[in-house]
Amino acid sequence: MRVLAVASECFPLVKTGGLADVVGALPGALAAEGIGVTTLLPGYPAVLSALEGGEAVREWPELFGGPARLLRGATAGLDLIVLEAAHLYGRPGNPYLGPDGQDWADNPIRFAALGRAAAEAAEGFGIVHAHDWQAGLAGAYLRGARPLVFTIHNLAFQGRYPAELFPRLGLPAEAFAVEGLEYFGGVGFLKAGLHYADRITTVSPTYAAEIRTPEGGMGLDGLLRHRAAAVSGILNGLDTAEWNPATDQHLAARFSLAEPEARAANRAVLQARFGLGEGGPLFLFVGRLAWQKGIDLVLDALPALLAEGGLLAILGTGDRALEARCREAAAVNPGRVGAVIGFDEGLARLGYGGADAVLVPSRFEPCGLAQLCALRYGAPPVVTRVGGLADTVIDANEAALAAGAATGVQFAPPSAEALAGALRRTAALWRDSPAWAAMRRNALAADVSWARSAGRYADLFKDLVNG
């Protein structure tokens, strides 16, 4: 079976978040299930420069304002089709944002072009697998020509634009309807993906349930309840060859489940990189500094962390006001709190390999990769009991501790008070050396690979083709 994946980013070519990691890792995982995946990507400069043996397979004299063509090639173990359109994608840097940090004004056209190209490229493929709002119009352009699976990575990003956009899309008039891509009087890219898809997946079972409620559905819960029979949650995984503490060159000392003691050397280097002194448990927050991710909850709960003798390392970028709060926390608590504002893949990996625990206090989280990385690198995660965090971390409650199954600490609701309680629980476990060593072993032993989830995707694809 051949699947055409459609996405706006893909690791290692272009990445702004977890979407890229999933799109980059899933083809290799599905290959083990006998499914071949070709990935359609926009022709950003970084993608075109990496493409090997690009052969033109389709050309347009004019596609949304300029010439374009589809190039078929490969790189980094990925089979690719790339939409080369310099007027749409020939811009360096972030794939979505201009130099001013704001969305490119023509983003709706840029990603409408991706959807149209998907319909053109789909010939010869058994299934089209579209990811997130940027690929949401693929179904509108396909109009049933191929079975479509649509995956929601984060319902909060919906691609909503004014109705004035619709005439520029080249779609039949009847597509601008409730039974189409019309959404509260405008054009909804994500809504279109949900409407036209034969199957809808999201990245954890708990999130699949949450988005069908008014509290978690962000305006789309009615449609998702209507389509409930088509909705399923399949957990994300990690490329465990890429994320491997036994071979990771970003670590000061490599380690494994059989020899976890070397983690101590990584902690020492991590402390130095963040200007931290000696103390109790070293907590790490790594990710977007955004309301969704709960960094404000960490800062509000900081007195409880410090009262337990804890240290805190913060790595991330995002909301300017939250960046400023992180810098202030580090300035007020020298040697206890360190903040690096920016994204540094190597430093993030060192953090996972050296921190005692990783904080993932998201207010909502479709799946989350930070907690999977933390488990893989033996840093028990402290997580909110939401979405994929609830599905992947076993709370260190009395029953789990007695059974020897705990891998981290969960808390609810997403509040500073609840997080403070979780920090106190985590610090108490850290001081109980045998209990902490057992939980760290459980984390290192947790299966965070794609193996089971790839099998579920394969079953879904096969059922769709056969059904």
TrEMBL record:
The family database entries (InterPro entries) matched by this protein are listed as: Glyco_trans_1, GS/SS, Starch_synth_cat_dom
Q: In which pathway does it act?
A: Glycan biosynthesis; glycogen biosynthesis
Q: Name one Pfam family in it.
A: Glycos_transf_1
User: Which residues of this UniProt protein bind ADP-alpha-D-glucose?
Assistant: K15
Cytoplasm keyword on record: no
* Stretches assigned to the Glycosyl transferase family domain: 272-425
List, alphabetically, the SUPFAM superfamilies matched: UDP-Glycosyltransferase/glycogen phosphorylase
Q: Which UniProt keywords apply?
A: Glycogen biosynthesis, Glycosyltransferase, Transferase
Question: Which top-rank group of organisms is this from?
Answer: Bacteria
Record EC number: 2.4.1.21
Give the catalysed reaction(s), semicolon-separated: [(1->4)-alpha-D-glucosyl](n) + ADP-alpha-D-glucose = [(1->4)-alpha-D-glucosyl](n+1) + ADP + H(+)
Q: Which GO terms describe its molecular function?
A: alpha-1,4-glucan glucosyltransferase (ADP-glucose donor) activity
Chain ranges of the Starch synthase catalytic domain: 2-226
State the top-level EC class.
transferase
- Which family is this sequence assigned to? Belongs to the glycosyltransferase 1 family. Bacterial/plant glycogen synthase subfamily.
HAMAP family for the chain? Glycogen_synth (MF_00484)
**Role, per record:** Synthesizes alpha-1,4-glucan chains using ADP-glucose.
Tell me what this protein is called.
Glycogen synthase
Which species is the source of this protein? Belnapia arida
